[in-house]
Automatic annotation (TrEMBL):
Keyword field: Signal
Signal sequence extent: 1-17
Source organism (scientific name): Rhizoctonia solani
Protein name: Jacalin-type lectin domain-containing protein
Pfam families in the cross-refs: Jacalin (PF01419)
Source organism superkingdom: Eukaryota
Database matches in InterPro entries: Endo/exonu/phosph_ase_sf, Jacalin-like_lectin_dom, Jacalin-like_lectin_dom_sf
Domain Jacalin-type lectin intervals: 308-432
The UniProt record lists the keyword Signal: yes
């Protein structure tokens, strides 16, 4: 069954998907983090000679060089690292054996079906998925892309995608690669509606190439290429001379790489790149060799929480009623705004429970319980309480429950999550209630 991200908020399209931390504390208004993408494809370490066989010597060099790479990654404190072509077991075992990021993806045991995509992160995530390409031409490996919803801090989530598109410049390669890019763009449209997004990995694409469609991430998804932004915002023209980076460490960032980092913010999060870097010089081996197939790319990000969530573009998004539907589980929910506009998600099973709110009332906390049904996590229970003590509930409690409490002066104005015929995941958007917000005309 298809599951869809949803949002229930009139003024802003917001759709994250997790249970908020039950602290009831205000989210930090700003922060920074960085991401890096690095490909180990065709990595060939420096040559040397010894009495050992070439194969034995090469494997020992590989291990030593990957250890050095991990040490450098730790020294420079990378927050989220996307790795492509992490297929060779010696590379992977060493990388994961020495890396100290607390959150890391697992890899496929079967070499043929291993897409070689790994993520090392300081931050936890939810909704991890791997998707194979619908069309590909390099059949020697099974490639695709991974998706995860990364929790930077409480209330700050960013959808992150690691990809490795079809390689090559033969006639059948570019159409397959174009389909790869289109597949990711369509995926973002469905799964990341209104979310902050970062796509970073190997696109195998160049702006100057006649057959590539890498601009689709910008035209269809509204993503910004951090490299294009860093060089002044002028995208290289199709059909002009290639600007692809050559071998070795680039002297500056003016050359184009097939590894790219795209991003966008959301109505909730103002996300911006504060620096784009080819990190080859940082990670150089003592012999002067880059321990990767190409130049690793890093982008420094800074974010602030959008003032719109607490000011004018949510003023008037007053919740007038909430309806829950449930029996053994929470089947669905509906929110109705003071304007009369209604938003409904989930199924239509169970009994209906409705709570009408006066102009002075707002929802201050919601209790959620979840459990497994048919090996999938479902929301089994929801119960909401207003500032005046009114309450509404539906479904049945389980052993796994948490309370989502709005910060002081805030109330629930919207929800986010995933649903099908039932509710799979549910979270809440808070905004200052009307008594805390001055109308636009009253502000200086």
């Amino acid at each position: 069954m298809l599951r869809y991200s949803f949002y229930l908020l009139v003024a802003s399209s917001l759709s994250l998907a997790t249970l908020p931390d039950p602290t009831g504390q205000a989210v930090a208004p700003s922060g920074t983090f960085n991401v890096m993408t690095i490909s180990l494809e065709d990595y060939k370490p420096v040559e040397s000679s010894s009495d050992k066989s070439e194969e034995e010597e090469g494997e020992e060099r590989d291990v030593r060089d990957i250890v050095y790479l991990v040490m450098k990654m730790s020294e420079y404190d990378y927050d989220v690292v996307n790795v492509q072509e992490n297929i060779v077991s010696a590379y992977h075992d060493t990388l994961y054996g020495y890396d100290r990021h607390p959150f890391r993806t697992t890899v496929f045991d079967d070499l043929f079906y291993n897409p070689g995509l790994s993520t090392l992160s300081k931050y936890s995530w939810i909704d991890f998925s791997y998707t194979e390409w619908n069309k590909r031409n390099d059949f020697e490996v099974s490639k695709g892309f991974t998706f995860m919803r990364v929790r930077i801090t409480e209330g700050v989530y960013v959808d992150m995608i690691n990809l490795d598109t079809n390689r090559g410049r033969k006639p059948k390669d570019q159409p397959a690669r174009r389909w790869n890019v289109q597949q990711v763009a369509d995926f973002i449209d469905v799964q990341s509606t209104g979310n902050a997004v970062i796509v970073f990995g190997n696109t195998n694409s160049l702006y100057t190439s006649l057959g590539d469609n890498i601009r689709l991430f910008t035209s269809q998804n509204g993503l910004i290429d951090a490299w294009v932004q860093a060089i002044g915002g002028n995208t290289p023209a199709v059909g002009t001379d290639s600007m692809e980076c050559g071998a070795g460490v680039p002297s500056n960032i003016s050359c184009e790489a097939i590894d790219k980092i795209f991003y966008r913010g959301s109505p909730l999060i103002n996300l911006d790149s504060s620096g784009f870097f080819y990190d080859s010089s940082r990670l150089l081996l003592p012999e002067g060799i880059i321990p990767a197939d190409r130049n690793p790319i890093r982008v420094e990000f800074q974010y602030t929480l959008s003032s719109g969530i607490r000011q004018s573009d949510l003023y008037g998004a007053k919740l007038s009623s909430i309806m829950l539907r449930g029996g053994n589980r929470l089947d669905g929910l509906s929110l109705t705004l003071a304007s009369g506009e209604s938003f409904t998600h989930g199924g239509w099973g169970g009994d209906f429970y409705t709570l009408d709110l006066t102009s002075e009332e707002h929802i201050t906390s919601v209790k959620l319980c979840w459990g497994k049904r048919n090996k999938h996590t479902r929301i089994f229970y929801a119960g909401a309480v207003t500032n005046t003590g009114k309450n509404i509930q539906a479904g049945k409690m389980t052993r796994d429950c948490a309370n989502a409490t709005a910060p002081d002066g805030y109330g629930v104005v919207g929800t986010f999550g995933q649903s099908g015929k039932e509710i799979d995941q549910l979270g809440f958007i808070y905004a200052e209630h009307s008594s805390q917000i001055a109308p636009d005309h009253a502000r200086p």
